[in-house]
Amino acid sequence: MHSVVLADDHPLLLRGLQDILSTAADFNVVGVAVSGADAVSLIRDLQPDIAVLDVAMPRMGGLDVLRALQSQRLRLKSIFLTATMSGPQIAEAMALGVCGILLKEYAPEALLDCMRQVGKGEKWLPDDLVAKATAMPQVAIFKKFGLLTAREREIAALICGGLSNRTIAERLGASEGTIGIHLHNIYRKLEITNRATLAALHVQYMAGHNG
Fold first, then answer.
1. Are residues 25 and 66 part of one domain?
2. Domain with 55 in it
3. Which residues have C-beta within 8 Å of that of residue 188, sequence separation ≥ 6?
């Protein structure tokens, strides 16, 4: 059975989510939060298997919650529930390691399927949302990644795995400054400015590469 924390600032939706999960023997709701701050506290205290987070809670939304928990080393699988997300938000969510993104309009029918897939260690990231993370066509992504050296591609993959420059430097036996220079060159060649966009592009590149 998977333990679950739910967070949404709309009481009616929160009640609906609880009702759906109460019908499933494989999930146990251990905590409910109506704000991002409450969600962070509950997740730290209860260490649930899965957190279902509303992206657009006031003051502290789902992305803020994941940022706040990054240093905690929790074995948390996170699912974002959203009415809509922008491309940069989706890119950042993927960079932060979100396991699932579910549009609220599909939640009544798809919530349990999404949670079961995430519970098994798989992703629930609809292709149209992943594509929205960057407007760059697949052909252009392949062309740009083709400009990277083997070491730059290796570093890009490690960054997308959530590793810091210092950790990457230790793993590759290089200095942190060297990794920073490589990262600068990766950004320049891909014409991007941050890790979140790199993560989104790398997911698409690997999907096409393995497809």
1. yes
2. 2-132
3. none
Would you give the end-to-end CA distance of the chain in angstroms? 33
Residue ranges with strand state E in the chain: 2-7, 27-33, 50-54, 77-82, 100-103
pLDDT in tens, the chain (211 residues): 899 999 998 888 888 888 888 888 999 999 999 998 999 999 999 999 999 999 988 888 888 898 888 877 778 899 999 888 877 788 788 878 889 998 888 888 888 999 999 998 888 887 777 776 665 566 777 788 888 899 999 998 898 887 889 999 999 998 888 898 898 888 888 888 778 778 878 877 777 665 5
* 176 φψ region: left (φ > 0), alpha (ψ -120 to 50), beta (else): alpha
* Tokens (6 digits) for 198: 């790199």
- Choose among 21, 23, 24: nearest CA to 32: 21
Q: In Å, how far are 90, 92, 183 from 192, measured between CA atoms?
A: 15, 13, 11
72 lies in the same domain as 9? yes
Residue written as token pair 């400054």: 177
The Cα 175–Cα 186 span in angstroms is 17
| 21 phi/psi in degrees, rounded to 5 | -70, -25
Q: pTM, whole model, 2 decimals?
A: 0.64
CATH of residue 173 = 1.10.10.10
Domain at 52, CATH number: 3.40.50.2300
